[in-house]
Structures are given as structure tokens and as C-alpha cells.
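Trying the structure run again after the queue cleared.
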Amino acid sequence: MIRILAAACVICALALPAYAQDDLEARQAAAEQIVGITTTDTIMQAMNEAVWPPVRDTIVQQNPDVTAEQLAAMEGVMADVSGEIVAEMSVDLVDFYAAEFSLDELNALVDFYTSPVGRKYQAKLPELMAKVTPTILQKTQEMGPRLLEELRKAAEERGLRIDI
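Done. C-alpha cells:
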């Protein structure tokens, strides 16, 4: 009886790597589906539309003689580079989702994003991003100097010096 139990344990232990690989492949497939659903051209366009105005304003402020053609070219560069970055990040996102979520959780996310509420969320996300991104950028720019000053003060109080 002990031999049968030991043999069963050995067989199970030997099968675990194959099961884990199958599970990883299934999780990666589900993760790819999620990334495909959530990383759409519409969302990228909305993000670029939200980010471009402050970038454009900075270019105009620092280059008063900039032409419309130059601005259009710069906007194109930003869109191209953003697309490349998103493509690279998509691979990382698949790995992240597959590592951090179980297959059941990933399937639940797929179910959500393909549900009517999930599709509505996806449809509204570009509008939401366009509305919230300028505010986030502005708050980040406003908070940056304050954060640096507070860090400098805290460092000084602790006998440290930082040049950020």
C-alpha cells in the first residue's frame, strides 16, 4: 500500500511541471485576450489627444516661430513613438497578467470586458482619459516643485543633501 501511495506521489510530482506549463499557456492566452481588448487604437488616440496639447504648448512656448508643419510632424512623432511603446508594453502586460492572476481571474476579466458593461467601459475610457489626463498632468507639474522642496527640507533635517 505504501509503495502504491509513493508511486502515485511520484507520478503526480512528475506531472506538475506539465500541468503548470499548460496552466501558464492558458493564462498567457487569456492575458493576450485581455490586452487585445483593452489596448485599442481608440484608447491610444484618446491618450495622445490628451497628452499632445501640453506638449504642443511647451514646444510653442520654447519655439515661438514654430510652424504648423513642424507641429504636425512633432505630433506624428509622438503618436508613432507612443504606438511603439504600447506595442512593447503589451508584451510586458501579457506576462504581468499571466503571472499575477489565476486562470479563473483572467477568464472573469475577459468575461467582464466582453460583457455589455465592459464594452461600455471600454467605449467611455477614451473620453474619460481625455478628461482626466490634462488634470493629472497639471497636478503632477504643480506638485513636482513642492515635492522636491519637501524632499530637500527632509533631507537637510536628516543631515543629507540631495540635488534633484
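Residues 14-20 have pLDDT under 50 and may be disordered. Worth checking whether this holds up in the mutant runs.
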